[in-house]
Amino acid sequence: MTQEPTALTIADFCAKYRINRATYYRNAKIGRMPPAIKVGGSTRILIEDEQAWLAKQRAEGLVCQEGV
After folding, report:
1. Considering only CA atoms, which of 42, 12, 38, 6 is closest in space to residue 24?
2. Strands 7-9 and 37-39: what pairing?
3. Model pTM score
4. Whole-angstrom Cα distance, residue 52 to residue 55?
5. For the chain, which has fewer Cβ within 10 Å, the N-terminal or C-terminal residue?
6. DSSP 3-state assignment of 1?
7. DSSP for residue 30
8. Any residues with CB less than 8 A from the CB of 20 and at least 6 apart, and which?
9. Residue 9 parent element (H or E)
């Protein structure tokens, strides 16, 4: 039985939403991306934070309702 991930790396997040890492960091700096945490030497985005960010994007009409 495999466990669902609880966090995404920045690279995984960027691949999932098809954005460049520089775009992620530029938008994170001004608060337009989900918050990230440091885990050891890597930066991760918690799945809950990703989902909250996505819900906010949908509520603001920035993504279509069928998917990303």
Report:
1. 12
2. unpaired
3. 0.82
4. 5
5. N
6. coil
7. T
8. 14
9. strand 7-9
Residues 13, 14, 18, 20: what is their CA dihedral angle, to the nearest 10 degrees?
A: 170
- Check: CB of residue 10 under 8 Å from CB of residue 47: no
Of 12, 6, 10, 20, the C-alpha closest to 41 is 10
Query: Per-residue DSSP letters for 37-62?
Result: EEETTEEEEEHHHHHHHHHHHHHTT-
CA–CA separation, 45 vs 7, rounded Å? 5
Indicate if the alpha-carbon torsion angle 47, 8, 59, 27 is positive or negative.
positive
> What one-character DSSP code corresponds to residue 4?
P
**Burial grade of 43 (CB within 10 A; 0-12, 13-18, 19 or more):** middle
| The predicted structure's pLDDT at residue 13 | 97
How large is the C-alpha radius of gyration of the chain? 12
